[in-house]
Amino acid sequence: MSKPISxxxxxxxxxxxxxxxSVYTLFQYQKIKTRIPAEKTGTRxxxxxxxxxxxxxxxxxxxxxxxxxxxTFDSPQTLEEYRETENLDGVVEGWENDFDLARKLMNWCRAxxxxxxxxxxxPINAMEILxxxxxxxxxxxxxxxxxxxxxxxxxxxxxARYATILHHEITEVWIQQYQxxxxxxxxxxxxxxxxxxxxxxxxEIHQQVKNQRPVRIRAxxxxxxxxxxxxxxRQFAIWIKNNHISSPINFSDLEYFKVxxxxxxxxxxxxxxxxxxxxxxxDLYFNPDYExxxxxxxxxxxx
Length: 303
Hints:
By secondary structure, the chain is an alpha+beta fold. 35% of the residues lie in helices and 14% in strands.
């Protein structure tokens, strides 16, 4: 007859089995750990490791950044009727450069009517805006001045685009002699400069205001509260769609074509949900002669 196993024996066997299992598990853990790359272990050695140096292989003067956004403009041919009907050549007669032409045209735009309520709201078409306002069937404010100004500039082949700041619409124009986008405000028949008199972009005005540096408004119309007006530049968007004659859309879709400059992710909640955004100034402030540079570079490249 077999002798029963004592409780002491069962306890010793169980303890031994547990010890063996623990040792085996620890051994397997150490074995797996050695396979994990150092970058994922979070060890002190990894934290002290120097970053990899990545040199610039392309000389900066050969780099032409192309915006991630596609900007569209109406052609002079599309706006030829507007230019002829309003005799815009006579309006800018004697112009010396793009900046001078823009100022003459802006002055003409502001003189077409006094600001009023655009009700019903006219379409983004300079000829229709002027026809309806002159017939006193509606009125116009900052946006309508912008539309007839931008389309007037485009009729001369000058790149001009719409911009939005807080509760106000303005314009940016590519001015060749400055080689940058210059901000114009047709409502006030104005442009903006720094203390040295250099015309500014919307982004530059934004940065000047944010850093509490002075901005001068060169306006032919009174600005009731200059400080409050400049604070409107704390938020801005550049329109990527500026071809509303050749490719018209409804106002409900405009926000899809605005790119807001957002310097920190938490500010995204302050812009319309439809809108685009970027934290990279080069997405908005690029050289529109990019394609020309590319063609020259291709022609100079060895066969």
